[in-house]
Amino acid sequence: MTHEPHQPHESSAGGARDLRAGTRPKIGLLWRSDGGPGPLCNARAARLIPLMEEIRRLGVDAEPVVFAEDAVDTVRDQLLGLDGVLVWVNPIQDGVNRAVLDSLLRHVAAEGVWVSAHPDVIGRMGTKEVLFWTRHVGWGADTHVYRDAAELRRGLPQALRKDGVRVLKQARGNGGNGVWKVELIRPEHGPGPETMVRVQHAMDGVGQPPEEIALGVLCERLEEYFAWSESIVDHAFQRRLEEGLVRCYLVHDEVVGFCHQWPRGLLDPGSEAARRPTPPSCFEGPDAVAYQPLRRTMEDDWVPEMKATLGLDTVDLPAIWDADFLYGAKTPEGTDTYVLCEINVSAVWPYPNEAVEPLARAAVARVSRRSA
């Protein structure tokens, strides 16, 4: 059974734009409150100061918008006084999800405020389900989606029977929350509800020994994910994980930078990679020589294929987003291949310095067009 994601849309309503007719356009930068004394006291929010400055340099006002569930009315009034808003709020942060925020953003978008990323666009490309919808794209791997506990209990044993090890991901999550490596301890046995599996949660910490439990017990444990994230994605495990991942940053459909990162949560605790210190992440601009093949493939092939598959136009794409790639098997010639790990849309920060100018230009172009 498959469910089509929500259709993205832009409202033609007047609303906020009519209220601001003839005034200088204004863009808000929204993030979740951390209870600090001022809007920019948050270290993460302070990273957005250069973006605010660049937006202002381009002739558009920029202001902080600090969101909290107990201040929805205040935030709504502020948003309705803007022409657009760029949003940085994780799917799950400080024990709270985005349900209230997404409802608010849909409301102000219907009133004519440009929202990036729109919650409907997040639902289409910013959850782990994108791995399933785009599995035929060149970045794809063997992928299944389970929409309830019954599908999980039927499908996971079949996937394990074929591969022996899989990665399960709740559809909405971040920072390794709800990401599990599941491995048959004795592949010749089962699998069935009583079959023992070795499980490792990406948030348990490097070096923590995996847990050994019955497959049926694991399925019971994972049922809670369906309530919020609505599905669990079952993805092929990539065996070059210790080589890190490449994060590719984009403004709409233009690559604006890269970062080599080192996720460690699913590394084999006994491996050398798990024992050695984490290498530093390295941000690079879009012209980094090592990533030019990936850049060309993204811009010329994979992003156009994704847009066609998901029914998105360039203007629907988030103003800033990133695609995380794990290393796939090398070709016979020794060339690297890449497998999509996830797409981040909700809270893309930090990002390379080279992304600031194109992001500001893209946002200003959107609100200027709408204000006109």
Features:
five-stranded antiparallel sheet, Rossmann fold, D-amino Acid Aminotransferase, Chain A, domain 1, 17 strands, single chain, Dna Ligase, domain 1, alpha+beta, six-stranded antiparallel sheet, 3 domains
CATH structural class of the largest domain: Alpha Beta
Percent strand equals 15-25%
Summed over residues and divided by their number, the pLDDT gives a mean of: 91
Helix tally? 13
Backbone shape: globular
CATH names the topology of the largest domain as Rossmann fold
Q: How many whole angstroms does the radius of gyration measure?
A: 21 Å
Lateral strand order in the biggest sheet: 7-12-8-9-10-11
Instruction: Please tell me the total number of domains.
Output: 3
- The ordered H/E elements are HEHHEHEEEHEHHEHEEEEHHEEEHEHEEH
Which regions contain 5 or more consecutive residues with pLDDT less than 50? 1-20
Structural class: alpha+beta
The main sheet comes to:
6 strands, antiparallel
Helix content: 25-40%
In the CATH hierarchy, the architecture of the largest domain is 3-Layer(aba) Sandwich
Distance between the termini: 44 Å
Q: How would you sum up this structure, described in words?
A:
The chain is α+β, with helices and mostly antiparallel strands. It has 3 domains: 16-119 and 357-371, Rossmann fold (3-Layer(aba) Sandwich); 142-236, Dna Ligase, domain 1; 241-350, D-amino Acid Aminotransferase, Chain A, domain 1 (2-Layer Sandwich). It has 13 helices and 17 strands. The strands form 4 sheets. It has a 6-stranded antiparallel sheet with strand order 7-12-8-9-10-11. Strands 15-14-13-16-17 form a 5-stranded antiparallel sheet. Strand 13 and strand 14 form a beta hairpin. It is globular, with a radius of gyration of 21 Å.
